Amino acid sequence: MNKVTIRKGVFFPVFIFVLIAVLVGIFENKILIDLSKQFFEWSLESFGWLYQWISLIALFLMGTFLISKYGNIVIGGKEAKPSYSFWKWFSMTLSSGIATGLITYGVNEPLIYFGNIYGELDQMGIKPGTHETAIWALARCFYNWGFIPYAMYAVSGLITAYMYFNRKKELTVSSTLEPILGKYINNKYARNIVDVLATLAIVLGLSSGLGTGLADVMTGIKVSYHIHLDTNAWIILGGITTFLFTFSSYLGLDKGFKVLANFKTKLLYVLLIVLFVAGPTLYILRTSTAGMGVWLHNFFLWGLDPIDIGGGALTKWWTLFDWAVWIAYAPVMGLFLALISYGRTIREFIIVSWILPSVFALIWFAVWGGYGLHLQESGALDLVKMIKEEGAVSGLWGLLNHLPYGMGTIIVPIILSLALFAYAVAANSMVTVIASMCMKDLPIGQEAPQYQRVLWGVLIGSIAIIMSAFGGGEQGIDGIKYLAVCGGFCVLFIFLVQLLSIIKVFFIDKAKDE
User: Fold this and answer.
1) Would you tell me how many other CB atoms lie within 10 Å of the CB of residue 244?
2) End-to-end CA distance of the chain, in Å?
3) Is 514 within a domain?
4) Cβ–Cβ contacts within 10 Å for residue 189, how many?
5) Is residue 196 part of a domain?
6) CB 282 within 8 Å of CB 93
7) 67 burial class (0-12, 13-18, 19+ CB within 10 angstroms)?
8) Which among 389, 410, 370 has a CA at the least distance from the CA of 107?
9) What is the pLDDT of residues 272-315, one digit of tens each?
10) Torsion (CA) 339, 214, 247, 243 in degrees, nearest 10
């Protein structure tokens, strides 16, 4: 058996960079936030067009694989047998891909559009506060959270799974670039650079996700219980969450992640059903159906907007920000999706990694967003005013506290816990992969040493707490948005090469069931 050692060329650059960021954040947090903001503005304004093209290419690639002959290829070869049952596999996929985003923005994002709170509608010529705007708001959420983002995960996961299990390459991001870069990526320094950027991107992305969850919980406590928490509370809550996902990663995938993912998925199902039944069911069905029509009607208009059509408040701060975050996660998320997909056909992989999570996201926004919009339109509760006064993530808590039959008393603490628990489950899988990326000669199926998983968990938690506690802005969470976009830009061009690799492997080299 090979001796497992640290990949010094990956571990130390990422470790040193993150450690410096943590120290600067502790002692000079304004410098860190200002630099992140400048990079945020420059990267999205300069490369928004590229984010849009890449997202559409990823979408159409996955649709092609779904119906093509390549869908019959088995990941791992014809004799490979699945490691997990179908629904456990799906729960692990869904839980790793959903951190805090759906929970935080399922209610808030449609309401922000509806009320034009940050000027999202200024360049679109849409009048805020009308029923037509409510339909448009859901449509925009369907676009931002539906099939495109999960296609990004699926692209990275598919090329990783095929190269690792079928071509017997290393489980690294750099291995997925070999079909295009050939011998050049086999250079030790080139491989290290690629894997450093991918690892750094997911570290920054995970930090952003934890920051969003912390902002959500802090606002929830303030709105629901009228308790104003200070910076010390951010640190305590962040520390608890960091401990949860770090300890879970320490236990390993089978003992930690699989159990937590199954529980989290079932809880999400229950919450969807409760809100759908208790809420304005007919309104949800009608408005979401109309929203899908508007979404499809505007699909290419929104998909090819580099900022010039929708403007900065809408396209840059929402759609392009979302694409940057999903791309930040994609290469390393692909490693995890590959690991749990052994023995499945490519068509099964696409259904579980792309189709089903996308459908779940659409249903979530239809139910939660539809409920919030109904309260606003009917005059039962002014959630738009609440968001203006209490911050971008406060609408969720206003809705929950307004639930009939006193259900909010029960559901509010559940969502408060879920906002951080959901992140912890997703972070668990990513911390495991980050630790593996920092090791060499790691046997197939074996996880990285426990100390590595603990170390990365602590570092990710630290930078998230700093950016979320000190990086607030107009929307209350600007600091962590800046951080996430920095992560996405780190791997933008790596993801582009992954797209080209998957095209070459399957459609030029004519991949077979190897």
Assistant:
1) 20
2) 25
3) no
4) 8
5) yes
6) no
7) exposed
8) 370
9) 999 999 999 999 999 999 999 999 999 999 999 999 999 999 99
10) 160
Question: CB neighbours of 215 closer than 8 A, spacing ≥ 6?
Answer: 104, 391, 393, 468, 476, 477, 480
Do residues 325 and 487 touch, judged by C-beta distance below 8 A?
Answer: yes
Q: What is the mean pLDDT of residues 338-365?
A: 95
The phi, psi pair for 206, rounded to 5°, reads: -65, -40
Residues written for the chain = 514
pLDDT at 365 over 60: yes
Amino acid at 421: F
HSE at residue 174, side-chain half, CA atoms within 13 A, is 21
- Chain-centroid distance, C-alpha 443: 28
C-alpha 223, offset from chain centre: 26
Q: Tell me whether residue 65 is in a domain.
A: yes
Closest residue by Cα to residue 330 from 108, 494, 464? 494
pLDDT at 474: 41
The range of the structural domain enclosing residue 94 comes to 5-508
Rounded (10°) CA dihedral 415, 420, 425, 426: 110
Question: What CA–CA distance (Å, rounded) separates 96 from 105?
Answer: 18
What residue type is 112 in one-letter code?
Answer: I
Whole-number Å distance between alpha carbons of 253 and 144: 30
H-state helical runs in 391-441:
395-401, 408-437
Residues 264 and 425: beta-carbon distance below 8 Å: yes
Residue 335 resides in a domain: yes
Q: Are 298 and 139 in contact (CB under 8 A)?
A: yes
Place of tokens 């969003």: 212
- Any idea what the CATH number is for the domain that residue 502 is in? 1.20.1740
- How many domains, the chain? 1
The pLDDT tens digits for 192-207 are 899 888 888 877 777 7
